[in-house]
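Good morning C.,

I know you're traveling, so I'll keep this short. The sequence:
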Amino acid sequence: MSYPARKIDWFKPFDTVLDESDAPFYKWFSGGQLNVAHQCVDRHLETKKNKAAIIFEGDNGDKQTLTYRELSYAVNRTANMFKNKFNIEKG
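The tokens, ready to paste straight into the viewer:
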């Protein structure tokens, strides 16, 4: 597995980097499975929970910062809202 591929936490490792069997409908990292929330937020909680995950600066100069811990809380609240109010499940 290449260096960039090792920097990603694969929930299921990919079989092939580029599957050209159904060209022009190419498949990248076929067979692999990722979790976007884990890649972007969860895996950083142990070492960066109090560091800035998102910094937003509005046109008027207002600035807002979310730490990884705050972002994780917001993501989980949103996921629970989708699950409880709209019956949206994983997947």
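Safe travels,
E.
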